[in-house]
Amino acid sequence: MNATLKDVAELAGVSRSAVSRTFTKGASVSAKMRRKVEKAAKELGYSPNALASSLTTGRTKLIGLVSNNFHNPIFLEVFDLFTKTLQERDLRPLIVNLSDEVDPDNSVQMLRQYSVDAVVVASSTLPPSFAKAFNEARVPVVHTFGRFATSPDVHVVGIDNIECGRMAARELVSRGYKKVAYLGGPPDASSAMDRHRGFMEEISLHTDVHATASYSEGYSFESGRAEMLRQLADSPAEAYFCGDDILSIGALSAIRESGLEPAKDVGVIGLNDMEMTRWENINLTTIHQPIKQIITASVDLIEEMLSEPDRYPEARIFPCKVVERGTLRPRR
Q1: How far apart are CA 177 and CA 301, in angstroms?
Q2: Which of 27, 98, 153, 216 would suit a FRET pair with 249, their CA atoms being 20 to 30 Å apart?
Q3: Cα angle vertex 89, ends 86, 94, to 5°?
Q4: What's the mean pLDDT in 185-209?
Q5: In DSSP terms, which residues pair with 315 in a beta bridge?
Q6: How far apart are CA 64 and CA 94, in angstroms?
Q7: What is the pTM of this model?
């Protein structure tokens, strides 16, 4: 049988409360007492029971990490960083896939069954109503990669997607492209809409540049490839701003399949700067989204809300930058 707290207390010759304090972060216990308890725990193979502790503290330390975009490789990086950062803060991630969920209330009910202390909605394609539903149910929530607003209903951490669209447009104009296009993700995603808006607003300032736009079915390799093949079969642009790296990689595949060369024949710029974009066979020029800083800020907000549940919602927005590689022609 597994060793219990009582067994450790008896072997160490101390009270049960002394053992409990030893394994409670921030609790007061002398160095001598800690050594005795830890020695006894090691001999018995004892480790604290997190579930039992939650009954005492009223906190499970479970943080719901929910998303709906698991087919996009960027989320492997996102979840890797999120789980590591939460565990470093002595919090426990609970990953939930909402790909087929359309009702925010169902999500709230599901997460409540697990008694999570807080929720991170890690998605730019889930509507704001999902994060808002958790907030209305008084579950602390952060919408990571959510839509920027000066007065948000919930805590939002991410980037200004409109400015990213402008940034991509300026980059294409600076390289002398006269016929450009936006190739976005699903049209109902706020990120896709905002990147489109910023792109078109900036292009409109340059009367000698013509721009068009199209949307794909999702943020996926297959969607980017299919839409680019359709573009190339009609009247393609000289360069494309693909609203996500995985769309860009699909577009590059279509360009090469059509016997064309990226940069030389068709330019492509993406957004995210995920690890795959640095691979030699991809070498994608893209807009870097500071994912590590965004995730750190999100977990900071979770900790702050656990200490101060009624804190006023805020938006923490991080700047982006262009990372030049090999899929656009040189600047003029």
Answers
A1: 42
A2: 98
A3: 30
A4: 94
A5: 156
A6: 5
A7: 0.83
Which residues, in sequence order, are CB contacts of 162 under 8 Å at separation 6+? 148, 194, 195, 197, 198, 201
Q: Which residues contact 89 (CB under 8 A, 6 or more apart)?
A: 299, 303
Tell me: pLDDT of 220 over 80: yes
**What local confidence, expressed as pLDDT, does residue 47 receive?**
76
Note the pLDDT of residue 3.
Answer: 78
Contact between 32 and 13 under an 8 Å Cβ cutoff? The reply is: no
Q: Label residue 57 by pLDDT band (50, 70, 90).
A: low
At residue 20, what is the residue type? S
pLDDT confidence of residue 164 = 97
CB 273 within 8 A of CB 74: no
Separation in Å, CA 233 to CA 70, 238, 254, 327: 30, 14, 11, 20
Rounded Cα distance between 57 and 78, Å, is 30
Q: Residues near 105 by Cβ (< 8 Å), separated by ≥ 6?
A: 133
Phi, psi of 20 (to 5 degrees): -60, -45
Q: How far, in Å, CA of 29 to CA of 174, rounded? A: 63
